[in-house]
Amino acid sequence: MKKIGILTGGGDCPGLNAVIRAVVRRAIGAYNLEVLGIREGWGGLIYGYVEPLTHYSITGILPRGGTILGTSRKNPLKSQDDHQRLRDNLKRYGIDALIAVGGEDTLGVAYKLHKEGVPLVGVPKTIDNDLSGTDYTFGFDTAVSIATEAIDRLHTTAESHHRVIVVEVMGRHTGWIATVSGIAGGADCILIPEKPFKVSDVSQLIKTRHKRGKNFSIVVVAEGAKPEDTGDLIVQDEKVDEFGHVRLGGIGSVIARQIEEQTGIETRVTSLGYVQRGGTPTAYDRVLATRFGVKAVDMIIAGEFGKMSSLRGNKIVAVDLEEATSGLKKVDPELFKVAEVFFG
Ligand code: F6P
Predict the structure, then answer these.
(1) In the chain, domain spans
(2) Residues whose CB is less than 8 angstroms from the CB of residue 174 and which lie 6 or more positions away in sequence, other chains included
(3) Percent of the chain at pLDDT exceeding 90
(4) Whose C-alpha lies nearest to ligand 1, atom 13?
(5) 3-state class of 203 per DSSP?
(6) Per residue in 175-208, pLDDT tens?
(7) Equal fold, 3-138+281-324 vs 143-278
(8) Quick one: which atom of ligand 1 is closest to the CA of 277?
(9) CATH class name, domain 3-138+281-324
(10) Is the pTM of this model over 0.85?
(11) Is 217 a residue whose pLDDT tops 90?
(12) How many angstroms separate the alpha carbon of residue 141 from the centre of ligand 1?
């Protein structure tokens, strides 16, 4: 083993740079490996956007958000030409093993390439925390901290104006950010993709709350939450990306309008959007990302390919990419029951 490559794919996420730094430090410091940074996710392996990473390249990046390598939602398996170019470039650059840092899509590609015999390991990344095989992904804690701070701030303005405020957070398939920030911020109702909802139930809950003398309410909604009657996602754009995902967003405005109509209470909406993904990672995410990065290099040296570094309890372990990509990790119903104690 002489040379390894690292790429970051999918949506960016606080902590990616901490992984890159950890990989470079471990690979050079402990094993004297060369490290190649692959730019723009899988795209970099198709087009040959590859550069050496040294101690100098990673100086000062630990607290920085985003990824110094850039990222993309490029799916290299969509076209046979791209797939072949990727395989050729792995040879051309002499990459003996690859580290793919990403969520369901990036690691799904990694798993398929592993089955073709490409020596690689994965590192789990997503602010949505919906990847199976790991208790937590890095980036989630930062997103939850940002959403919680926003909910705290929205509380004081909702209270002053006696309004309902609907806070829309990210969470395409699962409601982890909504549930955890909702509990932390004291939300009066939380709507998540795992539990289709009726706006009339939300309105009723708010009316009952008002009768009890609480003349403001905070509703947290995940972007992928669906009304029970139609089951329709609210999308910003019907176009799909290379992995077949539409751009979500707008459910907050839709339900805010209906809540105002049904309750007669002034209702406003705040969509947190990309603020949840940008900027500096929390200490927790820096440490988790660093542990994942160190483990990924150790896994390569141990020949544990086709696996992903993962958090199980307090330990970082290697789990099969097959398990990690077998289905999404939904919000724990027990956790959601805790959130429900505070509804209304
Ligand atoms: O996958 C993480 C995520 O934050 C989702 O919650 C969201 O739908 C998606 O990324 C949006 O990312 P982009 O607009 O960059 O495709």
Answers:
(1) 3-138+281-324, 143-278
(2) 128, 129, 130, 192, 193, 194, 222, 224, 328, 329, 330, 331
(3) 96
(4) 11
(5) helix
(6) 999 999 999 999 999 999 999 999 999 999 999 9
(7) yes
(8) 4
(9) alpha beta
(10) yes
(11) yes
(12) 16
